[in-house]
Every structure is written in structure tokens, then in C-alpha cells.
Amino acid sequence: MHLLEIVEGDGKTLAAGELLASQAREIAQLVRGESVPLSEAERQEVLQSSISYSRVDLLVVGWTGALVYGSTEGAAITIQMLEYANTQLLEFRHYDSLLTQTSRRRIFAPLERRSGVWGRLAALPRGRPA
Description:
By secondary structure, the chain is mainly α. It is 57% helix and 6% strand.
């Protein structure tokens, strides 16, 4: 995590819209975690997720990184929320993996046992027709 203060030459805080307009290429590259410039289409995709509540705050979130711009207090709260969301995502991935493993054992394993000739014969109804 890196914390930087971005100000204009006269010491005023740069507006979020101005930051996004002047540094769009770099912001998209940072959020994607890339060392090379992104294509125009990829840059647009990254920046469409940008959110701004006031004139001087900005949030751009991607899978591998995020840019949080604003007051120190606002940024700290946003970072905490992002950390919580990331924890929830990891937990959901764990549960998804467990459900996938369980469903494979319960659903697909019996089907695999019946896939051979003997398995198909064993699956036929038994008894004499009425």
C-alpha cells in the first residue's frame, strides 16, 4: 500500500476529475498492476469502475489493485472497507472450492462408476415385466 498526497503547483488539492483526466493512463496501469501501458479499450474498462462522491475524492478498483484518492480520514476508511471486501472474497472462494469438491464426489462419482458396460447393465431395472 502506498500513500501519496497529490497537490497542484499552487498547493491546492487536485480535483478528482482533473486527476482522472490528466493521469488516466497511469491510473489504469497502476490498478491493473501492469508495467506496460494498456490499450485504450483496457484503460476504458478499468476507469469505468471509478467512483467519486465529492470533488476531491476518487476510487478506482480492480482485481489486483486500487487507487484511493481523497482526505486521509476518508482514504483510511475506504482502505479498511476494501480489506474487508477482499477478506470476504477469499472466504467465498474457499466455500466455492468446498462446494465444488463435494458436488463432484456426490454427483459425478456415481455417474462415473456406471459409465462402463457393466455399470449400464447394473443400472437396468430388475425383475420380470408384468
